[in-house]
Write a structure and sequence with these properties.
This protein is of the alpha/beta class. The chain folds into 2 domains: 133 residues, 3-Layer(aba) Sandwich (Rossmann fold); 66 residues, DNA polymerase, domain 1 (Orthogonal Bundle), CATH 1.10.150. The chain is 44% helix and 9% strand. The chain has 11 helices and 5 strands; from the N terminus they run βααααααβαβααβαβα. It has a 5-stranded parallel beta sheet, with helices on both faces.
Length: 234
């Protein structure tokens, strides 16, 4: 049976979303802009983030093992060890991405259809439950944050916790194979796929929503410009 009562054939019955780079704009362009502005090598910040990924400054910050000041000191030291000086405060400022309207609309459509939803995010502090982000978070049955859990993606434990929290929230068991998982980083998709989740790498949001639509059996792609909103009278 399809999740939307007949519009398609569902292969999954629940969806887990990443936040940054999926529901919000990726920080990577802002990282690149900062690197270009101050003359740092292109891709330096990403390379620092992927070096010793389980124990570097980012990993410790996202597990809440460092506070903001500790992260700044540690990340700048890592950059210096790589031969470069940078301002880690500028790096942190680049993390604040704008919400993607098409993705937000898809979350709401899934919510209206009764699809169990979880948010699984690596972050450095518990998310504010106010404003537009707070409204979005209220659409999820479970929100799992690395800074609260003390574990982070790609550690397999945090994916298992997401499944447990989502199952507890909806009142029935949700298995990995029941879920689609969307993330913009391949390294974070691999453990989810190993657990049995159907994974979608978000590069182009429209393409990702087309993939997700096929998995859940619900049309989620943005309406073409000039078309009537779904459900509007013709």
């Amino acid at each position: 049976m399809s999740a939307d009562g007949g519009q398609g054939t569902a292969r999954v019955s629940a969806v887990v979303f990443d936040l940054g780079g999926v529901l919000t704009e990726s920080p990577m362009p802002a990282f690149a802009a900062y690197e270009a502005e101050v003359g740092l090598p292109e891709g330096l910040i990403r390379r620092l983030n992927s070096t010793d990924p389980d124990a570097n400054a980012w990993a410790r910050y996202e597990r809440n093992e460092l506070d903001a000041a500790g992260f700044v000191d540690a990340f700048e030291a890592e950059a210096l060890a790589a031969g470069h000086r940078l301002d880690a405060h500028r790096v942190l400022a680049a993390l604040a991405g704008e919400l993607r309207p098409a993705m937000v609309a898809a979350v709401r459509r899934l919510r209206e259809a009764g699809v169990p939803l979880a948010l699984l995010s690596n972050n450095v502090a518990p998310m504010e439950r106010t404003g537009r982000l707070g409204e979005l978070l209220a659409s999820f049955d479970a929100v799992v944050e690395s800074s609260v859990e003390g574990v982070r993606k790609p550690e397999p434990e945090i994916y298992r916790r997401a499944l447990t929290r989502l199952s507890d929230a909806v009142g029935w068991p949700i298995r990995a194979g029941d879920c689609a998982y969307l993330d913009d980083l391949g390294i974070n998709l691999k453990p989810a796929r190993a657990l049995g989740m159907h994974t979608i790498k978000v590069v182009d949001p429209a393409a990702a929503l087309a993939e997700l639509s096929a998995l859940v059996g619900i049309p989620l792609e943005p309406s073409p410009p000039g078309s009537s909103p779904r459900g509007a009278a013709s």
